[in-house]
Amino acid sequence: MPKVKKQELSFYIKKFYEYILLEKNFSNKTVEAYIHDIKALEDFLKDKNIETATSEDIQLFLIFLSKKDISVRSQARILSGIKSFYRYLLYEGVVSDDPTRLIDAPKIGRHLPEVLSIPEIDAIFQAIDLSEPEGHRNKAILEVLYGCGLRVSELVNLQLSQLRFHEDEQYLRVVGKGDKERLVPISKAAQKAIELYLETRNSLPIKKEAENIVFLNRRGNKLSREMIFIIVKKLTQLAGIKKNVSPHTFRHSFATHLVEAGADLRAVQEMLGHESITTTEIYTHLDREYLRSTFVRFHPRFK
Length: 303
Prior knowledge:
By secondary structure, the chain is mostly helical. It has two domains: 6-92, Tyrosine recombinase, N-terminal domain (DNA polymerase, domain 1); 118-294, hpI Integrase, Chain A. The chain contains 13 helices and three strands.
C-alpha cells in the first residue's frame, strides 16, 4: 500500500477526531487525549509512517511509555486510542492491516456504556414534534436507531433499495463495517414511521447523488453523522434527560433491552453486526448490573 503523505495523515486524524467526538460521543477531554497520543506515536516512529508501523513498533512504543513511568491505566488509555485510530484507518481503507490487533491492553476493568431506560426512550419519542417539516423524518431515524440497533454510519448510508418491506418479510439489508451485509428485522412501528416519512421525502428537491438515500436534509442531500448527533441531542434535552446521550446510546439500549428480555446472545450479535461474540457479551454485564441494581433497590435486606 502506498505511503500516506503527512498532509493526508493530518486529514485522517482530523476525520478521526470528528468521528470519536460526534459519533462515539467521547468527552472533549478523551478526544484531545486520543489525538495527543496518536501524535506522540507519530513522533516516536520518526521516519516511519504510521500506516506502515508493525506490531513490534507499537510494542516498542509501549515499552518507551513504561520507561517514562506512565501508569498502567494511562498506558491502557493510550493503547485504546491508538487501537481505535487503526480500526478507523482500516475501515477507511487507509491501511490493510491493524498492527494493534494482537496487542492486549492491561486489565483495569471494563467500561459499561450509557443506556436509556424504556421510559426514557418513550420520553424522547414524545419530544418529537410531528407538525414540523422534519418531524416524521426524525421519528423514523430514532425508530431505526433504537428499533434496529444501527450504527450512525449505517443509518446515514441506508438506501431505499435496502428496505425489504414485503408481506412475508420485514428487514433492513444493512451494509456494515468491512462492507459486510446483514439482515436486521424491523418492527412494524419503525416500518410505519419510515413509510410516513417517505411521503414527505418525495416532496424534497432531491439531489441526483442522493436519489437512493433514505434519510435526507431539507436541501435533498444525504444527512451527515454530525446532523444525527445534533437531532439526538436536541430531542434528549427536550425530553429532560440528563444522561450523556448520543446516537450510539440507542444502539446500546437496543442490545441491552433485548438481552434483559432474554434474547439469545448469538442473535443479538448477528443483528448488531459484531464480528466477535466477546464484543456482544458486554451486554450480559449490563444485564447483570441491571439485575443487581433492581435487587438492591427492592429487596428488604437492602433497605
